[in-house]
Amino acid sequence: MKKLFALLSLVAGFSSAASAADIATMQNLAQSEFRLLSEDLGSALSYKPVTPAEPLGITGFDLGLEVTSTDISKSSAALAKASGGSSPVSTLIIPKLHVAKGLPFGIDVAAFYSAIPTTNIKLVGGELRYALMSGGVALPAVAIRGAITRLSGVDQLSFDTKSLDLSISKGFLMFTPYIGVGQVWVNSTANVAGAGGVTLDQSFTQGKVFLGANLNLGLVNFALEGDQTGGTTSYSLKAGFRW
Could you tell me which residues are beta bridge partners of residue 64? Predict the structure, then answer.
């Protein structure tokens, strides 16, 4: 397990180090470029549950190291301009420490923290989830989730997302597939004027669909999720402990 954690950390670190830079020159962007960048960041930085719908229960925990990879080719040129002319990149890699705790009455809470290596991007997020159906031998679990994320570390950008989704899962022995749909609200405001003195400010919504699978091998747990938010695709892998 330690080797897997080390590998995930190295993948995230090397992928980011090879391509990333501080976001510190947003004054180079036109409004249309800022919109494209905000849309891709909305997809990349919005909440990724990477967990089935069934509740953890009052004694339950889910702790894992997570890596999310998002295709940002649509805004790669804009990100390069916002990062002082760095080389364009098509993929944003985000490592996260993710923890969830079960509470009574089918309620779970969760949070994550991320700091992307070689950039000034830091990200926190959290969720509150309620199981409408807890699931069982014959019935699936169904849950509704509200989540938020907030960017920090980038002085020139104020950015946050809010999301609401509905998911369903059904366990089969150690394997639990799940699927969900939802909506993401993105607020993105540059703290500097853009090219030509234009105000860079975008607020919009994006549709969200996701599917994944959880594999629990006793205490050791693995989860894989694919997410499409606003037409941009992300893949997340989490390895850790779940009980």
Answer: 98, 240
Confirm if 114 and 150 have CB atoms less than 8 A apart: no
CATH classification at residue 99:
2.40.160.20
Q: What does the pLDDT look like over 8-50, one tens digit per residue?
A: 444 444 444 444 589 999 999 999 999 999 999 999 999 999 9
Q: What is the pTM of this model?
A: 0.90
Give the separation between CA 233 and CA 112, rounded to whole angstroms.
Answer: 20
Query: In this predicted model, which residue has the larger pLDDT, 37 or 2?
Result: 37
Count the domains in the chain: 1
Tokens matching residue 177: 């597939």
Cα 159–chain centre separation:
14
Residue 39 contacts residue 230 (beta carbons within 8 Å): yes
Q: Give me 67's structure tokens.
A: 């890596």
Range of the domain at 26: 2-242
**AA letter at 34:** F
136 class by beta-carbon count within 10 Å (0-12 exposed, 13-18 middle, 19+ buried): exposed
